[in-house]
């Protein structure tokens, strides 16, 4: 009998951008929320939304009738706080889809607004939705833009002012802790149970890797949530605190990775957590508050590419650790599972779409050649042929136009369906039209590997050598991509994509 664990379904793979030998990793750090612990997104974000809305109602805003729309926003979108728009951009920063408030902008309005705009996330105008925690914020902002345009909100206020007000109320909701108190009181309602995650971490620990928990959540939330998610799935007598070599709460990421801050021990006394300044080596089994990555590296005797950090926040977990510390990085994208399944379910249609696009490309190529031949004859220059006759060429050009119109009518519904996979408004997380999305580009740049959940490491083992696929460019004959400048049969590749306004 084979001792091997069966391979994962495709949606639970580890996807590698930069070759990573897990055997060379000496320590693995983890974020907690939406990394080690996954939540029922709609349940969590609906309650977060309701807390923000109720605060606004208390302030006299006429918004009691608003409700959370889970399809209105998704991770990777960008809020244009200057114009009150929700945007999806491609890898180059060009806007490919836009809503003003909750209404889709027309092609003409979007072109007029953004044709000369390249999104630069360093500018304060743009707010990138880094995590699933951003969905409620984006949803209520878009809805409030509609109310602002209708003159239903109090006081003189611009779109930027409106966003700051939403942000302030969201922060206040988290600071008051009412939402987290609800989750602690009823974790079964909010937390997705995954017994494979503790097993994956046990594999890593017993393979000699140091395990680190570095979370922005406070101790009063971290301890009960980790107890609920982990302890019942660990060997008898073992708790989650014994699983980790270092536990750091209230880490203030991304500042934890970029600055130096005081480190405190979390001292539990009479059911309360008190803080005591700490200097010197870390103590086993003691949770810590604050501190810095530099201090942690010194304690571990490790640095740079000896450490892998796993988190769900594109900037706070992955971008900064890669840029500043040169740690290896893994991004958790829970939505990836639905995305991969959606792509697989669309494969037959996609194949048909690609086949019909080959036909369209050939007709377009013939049409272009006929137009050029007619142009050369008309202006009497360059090499041209006297056969077929000009009327015959004109007739053939008209026939091609008719055939292409008919083909476009066939392609249109398939192309539209491709843009609505996973989300009817925004489509796939990693695509923007026929290109990679802005989020996908960041995943490529900053995440050495990415996957849908931590427990996917279970299938790979702590000893895996993850190899990235060979990089490709449009001229690479082994990878379909774009329109070739010569026949597909000569290039050895195919045609990919549709018109789609690209």
Automatic annotation (TrEMBL):
Coiled coil: none
Keyword set, alphabetical order: Hydrolase, Magnesium, Metal-binding
Gly residues biased stretches: 490-502
InterPro entries: HAD-like_sf (IPR036412), HAD-SF_hydro_IG_5-nucl (IPR008380), HAD_sf (IPR023214), Pur_nucleotidase (IPR016695)
Region (Disordered) residue spans: 475-502
Keyword Signal listed: no
GO molecular function terms noted in the UniProt entry: 5'-nucleotidase activity; metal ion binding
Stated family: Belongs to the 5'(3')-deoxyribonucleotidase family.
Stated name of the protein: HAD superfamily (Subfamily IG) hydrolase, 5'-nucleotidase
């Amino acid at each position: 009998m084979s001792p091997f664990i069966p391979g994962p379904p495709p949606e639970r793979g580890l996807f590698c951008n930069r070759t990573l030998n897990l055997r060379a990793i000496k320590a693995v750090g983890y974020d907690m929320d939406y990394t080690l612990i996954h939540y029922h997104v709609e349940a969590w974000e609906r309650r977060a939304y309701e807390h923000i809305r109720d605060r606004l109602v208390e302030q006299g805003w006429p918004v009691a009738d608003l409700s959370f729309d889970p399809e209105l926003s998704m991770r990777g979108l960008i809020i244009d706080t200057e114009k009150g728009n929700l945007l999806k951009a491609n890898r180059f920063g060009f806007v490919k889809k836009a809503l003003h408030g909750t209404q889709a902008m027309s092609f003409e309005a979007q072109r007029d607004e953004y044709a000369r705009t390249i999104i630069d996330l360093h500018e304060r105008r743009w707010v990138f939705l880094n995590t699933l925690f951003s969905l409620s914020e984006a949803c209520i902002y878009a809805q409030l833009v509609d109310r602002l345009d209708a003159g239903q909100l109090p006081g003189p206020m611009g779109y930027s002012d409106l966003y700051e007000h939403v942000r302030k109320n969201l922060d206040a909701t988290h600071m008051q802790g009412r939402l987290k108190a609800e989750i602690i009181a009823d974790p079964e309602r909010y937390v997705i149970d995954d017994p494979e995650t503790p097993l994956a971490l046990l594999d890593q620990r017993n393979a000699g890797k140091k395990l680190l928990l570095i979370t922005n959540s406070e101790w009063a939330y971290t301890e009960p949530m980790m107890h609920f998610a982990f302890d019942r799935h660990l060997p008898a007598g073992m708790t989650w605190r014994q699983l980790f070599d270092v536990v750091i709460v209230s880490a203030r990421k991304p500042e934890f990775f970029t600055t130096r801050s005081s480190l405190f021990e979390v001292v539990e006394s009479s059911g309360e957590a008190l803080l005591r300044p700490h200097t010197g080596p870390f103590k086993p089994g003691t949770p810590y508050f604050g501190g810095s990555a530099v201090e942690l590296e010194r304690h571990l005797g490790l640095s740079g590419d000896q450490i892998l950090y796993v988190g769900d926040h594109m900037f706070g977990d992955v971008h900064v650790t890669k840029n500043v510390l040169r740690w290896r990085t893994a991004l958790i994208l829970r939505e990836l599972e639905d995305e991969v399944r959606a792509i697989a379910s669309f494969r037959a249609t996609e194949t048909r779409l690609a086949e019909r696009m080959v036909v369209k490309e050939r007709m377009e190529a013939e049409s272009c050649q006929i137009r050029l031949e007619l142009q050369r004859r008309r202006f009497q220059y360059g090499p041209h042929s006297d056969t077929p006759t000009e009327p015959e060429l004109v007739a053939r050009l008209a026939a091609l136009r008719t055939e292409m119109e008919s083909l476009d009518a066939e392609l249109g519904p398939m192309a539209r369906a491709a843009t609505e996979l996973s989300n009817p408004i925004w489509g796939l997380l990693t695509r923007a039209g026929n290109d990679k999305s802005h989020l996908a580009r960041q995943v490529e740049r900053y995440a050495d590997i990415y996957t849908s959940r931590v427990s996917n490491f279970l299938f790979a083992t702590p000893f895996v050598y993850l190899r990235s696929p060979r990089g490709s460019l449009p001229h690479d004959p082994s990878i379909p991509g774009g329109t070739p400048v010569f026949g597909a049969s000569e290039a050895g590749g195919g045609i990919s994509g549709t018109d789609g306004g690209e």
